[in-house]
Write a structure and sequence with these properties.
Jelly Rolls, 7 helices, single chain, alpha+beta, three-stranded antiparallel sheet, binds fe (ii) ion, seven-stranded mixed sheet, 277 residues, binds 2-oxoglutaric acid
């Protein structure tokens, strides 16, 4: 089988339906070439300067990684806060939270010679498994061509329905997600996936962003990783997803300079039931 591929102007409902069924889906040409080229240009120096600092058995030793891309590339705002992408995230993450947050924002350039990354679920950063409740979702944007040869992301379709602690075995089908630059692969936090081996002679670069339920701790501490002055220049929806927001009107508050806390709006909080309306 292959993952469903939908055109960038496909109805949001059909993208959601494909992800619900397979745990992942590709949306082609979802962001412009101009944005992709700009993000890639902004990342060249960070890739080359700090890209090897995250090398380990999981991330690989022939792969460059850059974290907190939002802080390094203004153009990445268009990707991280892509409005139609967020309409898809809404369907998966707003059933169990009033809002969601950006977990991480990581560029990954897999170089020739890299091996297959171990198949894994991104949501294992959270030590709970609640069937039917997605804790987070990932969106991998192709910044270069993703091909079967150069390490396009691998996904185990249907694995989002597996009961913990089932792991992929030799009989489970693994499919790849070839994409052109500007296309996006959505996958649920519960879907097994991993980077691919690069057997080509050119690198494969992608930007993968994760989004978690608003009452969970974010993978990256964006409040510390980006200077406040930079954050203040971000569009409001990005600031909120970085963590400059309260969940349910009460989670994440802090005293302001005069020692007061904002009046807490319990409406919409856990006790109230945020699906009531
Ligand atoms: O690079 C990829 O295609 C996937 C990377 C990934 O899944 C991860 O590092 O968690
Ligand atoms: Fe992953």
């Amino acid at each position: 089988m292959a993952l469903e591929r939908l055109p960038g102007d496909a109805p949001t409902d059909s993208i959601i339906a494909a992800i619900r069924r397979d745990g992942a889906a590709i949306v082609e040409n979802f962001v412009s070439q101009e944005i992709v080229s700009q993000v890639l240009a902004d990342l060249r120096e960070p890739f080359d300067v700090v890209g090897r600092s995250t090398e380990n058995d999981f991330n690989g030793y022939t792969t460059l990684r850059v974290n907190s891309v939002l802080d390094l590339s203004d153009a990445s705002v268009e990707v991280v806060g892509h409005q139609r992408m967020m309409a898809v995230l809404d369907a998966f993450l707003l059933g169990h939270a009033q809002s969601y947050l950006m977990g991480s924002c990581t560029a990954i350039e897999i170089h020739p010679g890299e091996q297959d990354q171990a198949l894994h679920r991104d949501d294992t950063i959270y030590p709970v498994h609640l069937p039917g409740m997605e804790l987070q979702m990932s969106v991998m944007w192709a910044l270069t061509d993703f091909t079967e040869e150069n390490g396009a992301t691998r996904v185990v379709p249907g694995s989002h329905r597996w009961v913990f602690p089932r792991e992929p075995g030799p009989d489970d089908e693994v499919v790849q997600a070839p994409m052109t630059p500007g296309s996006a692969l959505f996958y649920l936090g519960s879907a097994f996936h991993g980077g691919g081996a690069n057997n080509a002679n050119t690198p494969r670069a992608g930007l993968v962003n994760t989004y978690c339920l608003g009452w969970l701790r974010q993978e990256v501490n964006h409040i510390l990783s980006m200077p406040r002055e930079t954050a203040a220049r971000m569009p409001e929806h990005i600031q909120k997803m970085m963590g400059y927001s309260l969940h349910g009107g009460m989670l994440g508050y802090y005293p302001t300079d005069d020692g007061r806390v904002p009046s807490r709006d319990m409406k919409g909080g856990a006790m109230w039931g945020w699906q009531a309306d």
